[in-house]
Amino acid sequence: MSHPVNESPTLIENRKADHINIVLEKDVTGKGITTGFEQFFMEHDALPDVDLDEVDLSLQVWGKTLQAPLLISSMTGGTDNAHFINLNLAETAQALGIAMGVGSQRAGIEQPNLGKTYQIRGFAPDILLFANLGAVQLNYGYGIDEAKKAVDMIEADALILHLNPLQEAVQAEGDRNWKGLYNKIATLATKLDVPIIAKEVGNGISGKIARRLADCGVSAIDIAGAGGTSWSEVEAYRQSDPRRRQIAHCFAGWGIPTAVSLMQVRKAVPELPVFASGGIRSGIDVAKAIALGATLVGSAAPLLDAATYQSQAVYDKFSILLETLKIATFCAGSSNLSQLKQVQLHHQNSWSYPME
Questions:
Q1: Nearest residue to 231 via CA among 104, 335, 333, 116
Q2: Which of 15, 187, 235, 270 is 20 to 30 A off residue 50, Cα-Cα?
Q3: Does pTM top 0.85 for this prediction?
Q4: Are 175 and 249 in contact, with CB atoms under 8 Å apart?
Q5: What is the C-alpha to C-alpha distance for residues 222 and 215, in angstroms, rounded to an integer?
Q6: How is 36-104 classified by DSSP, letter by letter?
Q7: 74 HSE (CA, 13 A, CB side)
């Protein structure tokens, strides 16, 4: 396998540890950009013909039943404390009956003793679980063998190929050659026996790119839009070179807001599941995302701090989000997800205020 000069398994492991610490300790939210969800308002039903206790948020994705359309988005792995974090996340996913993704598994493939930091299936036997590799690694020696290793490593139901061109561009050790990846993704999709999810990491996916990915055989799109964690900000805090740090900070407001990306992608690939992530902070955000066409809605950074302590702390945080979603569904006059998808959303610029 060929990798950038000076890249090594140890460097990868150190980078994973840096990412955890920086997200926990620094303000790495995008600057000057929001998710866009705050510009939408759900139409309130003052007399819902619904029993709140009968609201059903369950759905099926790729043959697995989930109790809610929620995803613990990919966060970590590949460093010692990541295993404890992943176990706490997995126990919550199992308890709530929701989906989960692990962080990039390159470290576990290149340093097999780190594989255990991703392995949580024993604690979450029933969840929809996603493996994870960087798509750009297909230009640096990776292929079907590594993809299968990632899936087998954690007994995953699908494989995320994450798309992080901006993050790689501002990393001193980043992978800069992104040419020819569409064909390589298409080849991988024909050979891998689980679905492939194309996922950004916080800068969004446009409708045009989603359509091209769908034509390559990708089975779902995770938009991971702008407005939440900015990975250029994370990388800025890793830089020792002031010049490179300044360049990374310049992109703090870069990307497609999550709500905008979601609408574009839903329109471009109506036949595919679309996962919405990027700055999701409440069950009301989740409800809006579902109404805009999301199949699953993911959250990551808000859970990380709790996950460093215990699974109960993660459970408490996510159960608040889940109960808020349930109440929002009820107050929108819906008793299930199919009805929630039909709820009218109003943009603040087009809201009408009738006179008495």
A1: 104
A2: 270
A3: yes
A4: no
A5: 16
A6: SGGGEEEPP-SS--S-GGG-B--EEETTEEESSSEEE-----SSHHHHHHHHHHHHHHHHHT-EEE---
A7: 32
